[in-house]
Design brief:
Elements lengths: L8 E4 L5 H9 L3 E4 L5 H7 L3 E6 L6 H5 L6 E4 L9 H6 L3 E3 L6 H16 L2 H9 L5 H4 L9 E5 L3 H12 L3 E5 L5 H6 L3 E2 L3 H7 L2 E4 L13 H6 L5 E4 L8 H10 L4 E4 L19 E3 L8 H19 L13 H6 L5
Parallel strand pairs: 1-2, 1-3, 3-4, 4-5, 6-7, 6-9, 7-8, 9-10, 10-11, 11-12
Helix pairs in contact: 1-13, 5-8
Length: 334
C-alpha cells in the first residue's frame, strides 16, 4: 500500500494555476511537472507519485499500474471521461474533481457564443474592417429578449447558464436525466418531458451534460432536424455529444441558423474539419472554463481535494464513492 499522507510526490500532467501548486507545496508535497504526455515518459515519471493531477490528459489503467504508490487522481474540472475510473476503483485509488469551480465562467462563455451568433459579431467585425457599409442592411440580427433558451443538462453549469439567460429576459426551459423537479423549480425553469421537446421549442439550445455512453452522439441528424430553422446550437460541454458531420450538413443546408462550439470531438480541431469554413459557426478552443477566476478556483479546490485524500480525510468531490471504505480501512488492491 502507498503512503496516504501529504509529503509525497504530486505529478502535475498539465499546467494549473500557481495558487494550487503553492497550496500543495505548503502542505509538504513535492510537486513535479510531467515533461511529456507520451505514455512511456509518463510511466517513468509517475513511478514514485502518490498523486497525479490532470486537466484533460488521459490516465488509464496502464499508467496507474506504473505507480504503485498512487493514492489519488485529481481532475481539474468536472469531466472524468479521460480517466479509467473503474480501474482506479479496482486499484483502491480515489478520483476527485472540481465540479462547479468553473460553472460561472463556462455559463458566461455559453452566453458569449449565443451573443456572437445572434448579433453576427464575427461577420460584422469583418465588414467593419472592410469598410462594408451595407452589412447592417443585409444581416440577420436577433434580439434575445423573449426568446426561448433550452438547457440540456441541469448540473452546476446548466443552472448557472439558465440564470444568465433568465436575466437577459429569455424564457428558459430545461431537460435532465438526473435532476429532480425541485432543481428546476428552484431556478424558475420550466422542465420539459424530453430532449425532443427542448430541441423543438428552443431558439437557443445549450448543452451541459458529461460525455458518457448515454450522451455521446446525442445530437445527430435526427435531433438537428427537430430544431427550429432559426435556432442556434451551443456546446461548451464535450465535443463527443455532437455528430459534427451531421452538424456541418445542417449548417450548410440552413436547417439551423448557427452553432457556437467551444469543444470538439477531436481537440485541437483538425484543420480539415468542415466546420472551419462556415460563417454561421463560431469556434473557440475549449476555453470556457479558462478565466483567471475559474482557474484559481479549480486549482485551489483540486489541491484541497488531493490533500484530503493524502491526509486520510474523505474529500468533498469523490467521483468513485465505492472506493472510500477500502481507502479508509487501509486496504488496497494493486
Amino acid at each position: 500500500m502507498g503512503s496516504r499522507e501529504a509529503g509525497g510526490v504530486c505529478l502535475v500532467l498539465q499546467a494549473i494555476h500557481a495558487a494550487g501548486i503553492e497550496r500543495l507545496r505548503k502542505a509538504g508535497c513535492k510537486v513535479r511537472f510531467a515533461s511529456s504526455l507520451d505514455p512511456a515518459v509518463l510511466a517513468r515519471e509517475i513511478a514514485d507519485a502518490c498523486a497525479v493531477l490532470t486537466r484533460d490528459a488521459r490516465v488509464d489503467d496502464a499508467l496507474m499500474a506504473a505507480a504503485p504508490r498512487l493514492a489519488v487522481i485529481g481532475v481539474h474540472g468536472t469531466g472524468v471521461d479521460n480517466i479509467a475510473v473503474e480501474a482506479a476503483t479496482a486499484r483502491g485509488i480515489a478520483v476527485v474533481n472540481t465540479p462547479g469551480a468553473n460553472a460561472r465562467s463556462v455559463a458566461e462563455h455559453a452566453l458569449a457564443l449565443t451573443f456572437h451568433l445572434a448579433k453576427s459579431i464575427g461577420i460584422g467585425d469583418r465588414a467593419a474592417r472592410q469598410s462594408d457599409g451595407t452589412f447592417k442592411y443585409s444581416s440577420r440580427l436577433v434580439e434575445l429578449d423573449g426568446a426561448t433558451f433550452g438547457v440540456i443538462g441541469f448540473g452546476a453549469i446548466g443552472r448557472a447558464t439558465a440564470r444568465l439567460a433568465k436575466a437577459l429576459g429569455m424564457e428558459v426551459i430545461g431537460w435532465s436525466r438526473s435532476q429532480d423537479d425541485d432543481a428546476f423549480a428552484a431556478e424558475g425553469v420550466r422542465r420539459v418531458p424530453s430532449l425532443d421537446d427542448v430541441l423543438s421549442e428552443s431558439d437557443v439550445v445549450s448543452l451541459h451534460v458529461p460525455s458518457n455512453p448515454a450522451t455521446r452522439g446525442m445530437i445527430g441528424r435526427d435531433q438537428l432536424a427537430r430544431m427550429k430553422p432559426n435556432a442556434y446550437l451551443i456546446n461548451t460541454a464535450r465535443g463527443a455529444l455532437i455528430d459534427e458531420a451531421a452538424l456541418a450538413e445542417a449548417l450548410v443546408a440552413g436547417r439551423i441558423a448557427g452553432a457556437g462550439l467551444d469543444v470538439f470531438a477531436v481537440e485541437p480541431l483538425p484543420a480539415s474539419s468542415p466546420l472551419i469554413g462556415l460563417d454561421n459557426v463560431v469556434l473557440t478552443p475549449h476555453v470556457g472554463g479558462s478565466t483567471e477566476a475559474a482557474l484559481y478556483r479549480a486549482a485551489t479546490t483540486l489541491a484541497d481535494e488531493v490533500l484530503a485524500v493524502l491526509e486520510g480525510a474523505k474529500p468533498d468531490h469523490l467521483v468513485n464513492e465505492a472506493v472510500w471504505p477500502r481507502i479508509a480501512s487501509g486496504e488496497r488492491a494493486l
